[in-house]
């Protein structure tokens, strides 16, 4: 039957007949409506291609941890990237500087995380150059939230989830106060501020309780530690995570690969040198008896 231009005329009796014949229980799903109306769709992969699609392994990176210490924030990540049970890279950079006073630590899919970091860095630069001032703290947090939320579809597919830690120093803080701030995010882009520490990634489950214990019952609380004490604590924690989580690496003595450790203070972002990490890692080990 050809209705031509009269198809959209709901008063046409021929339209009423078709409507009565095509009443389906689509439950508000437009795709389901088209399927039940026998509309020719080609949305499903052939079984052979579908089988190959499930074999694709995406690289993932873990574990990252941030601690508020006496002068600001210390944030670190191990260097291992994995795909399934395979170690594909042992020099991954998981702690990325975004601007002079902000650092993003990534866990999850490196491909998506690096793209989010680049977008964030360029957005901050654009605002600074176009408005001749720094983006506000709240503006930076909201911008990262939007980027994570826009990645939700990939996260739901299980191939592009990114759960970062965002550490920065608030220059508006009083001179005698610690302006270091640590925020973690969920997959929907909601951000939460942590008072003393944050950790995420597959190895975080093994060290979160230790951080809580040190923060509340340690001889020196996390926020009272100096740079050396905070670094030794973080190196020990990543070693603990590497003992229980195959996707996390500690210090690789064979090729001298240390975790990536950065600090964010009022003077800016700085990277802890391997020389300092070598000294502090030796101090972090228990004495041999």
Commentary on this structure:
- This protein is α+β, with helices and mostly antiparallel strands and 289 residues long.
- The protein has one domain (61-284): Glutamine Phosphoribosylpyrophosphate, subunit 1, domain 1 (4-Layer Sandwich).
- It is 37% helix and 20% strand.
- The chain has helices at residues 13-21, 30-36, 47-53, 110-131, 137-150, 152-156, 204-217, 227-244, 274-284, and strands spanning 60-61, 64-69, 72-77, 81-83, 86-89, 95-99, 102-105, 165-169, 180-185, 191-194, 197-200, 260-265, 268-271.
- Helix 4 runs antiparallel to helix 5 (137-150), helix 7 (204-217) runs antiparallel to helix 8 and helix 8 packs across helix 9 (274-284).
- The protein is globular, with a radius of gyration of 26 Å.
- The N and C termini lie far apart (93 Å).
- 35% of the residues are buried.
């Amino acid at each position: 039957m050809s209705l031509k231009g009269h198809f959209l005329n709901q008063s046409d009796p021929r339209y009423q007949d078709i409507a009565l014949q095509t009443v389906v229980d689509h439950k508000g799903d437009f795709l389901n409506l088209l399927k039940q109306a026998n509309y020719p769709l080609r949305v499903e992969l052939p079984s052979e291609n579908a089988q190959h699609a499930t074999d694709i392994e995406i690289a993932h990176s873990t574990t990252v941890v941030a601690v508020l210490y006496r002068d600001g924030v210390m944030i670190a990540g191990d260097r291992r990237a994995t795909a399934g049970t395979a170690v594909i890279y042992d020099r991954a950079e998981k702690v990325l500087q975004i601007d002079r006073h902000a650092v993003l630590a990534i866990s999850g899919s490196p491909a998506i995380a690096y793209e989010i970091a680049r977008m964030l860095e360029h957005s901050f630069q654009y605002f600074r150059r176009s408005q001749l001032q720094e983006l506000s703290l709240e503006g930076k947090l909201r911008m990262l939230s939007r980027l994570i939320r826009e990645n939700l579809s990939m996260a739901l597919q299980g191939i592009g989830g990114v759960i970062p830690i965002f550490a920065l120093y608030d220059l508006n803080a009083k001179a005698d106060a610690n302006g270091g701030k640590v925020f973690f995010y969920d997959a929907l882009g909601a951000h939460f501020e942590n008072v003393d520490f944050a950790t995420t990634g597959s190895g975080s489950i093994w060290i979160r309780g230790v951080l809580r214990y040190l923060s509340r019952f340690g001889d020196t609380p996390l926020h009272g530690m100096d740079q050396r004490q905070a670094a030794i604590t973080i190196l020990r924690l990543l070693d603990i995570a590497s003992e229980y989580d195959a996707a996390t690496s500690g210090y690789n003595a064979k090729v001298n690969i240390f975790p990536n450790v950065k600090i964010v203070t009022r003077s800016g972002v700085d990277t802890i040198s391997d020389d300092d990490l070598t000294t502090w890692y030796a101090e972090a080990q228990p004495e041999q008896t």
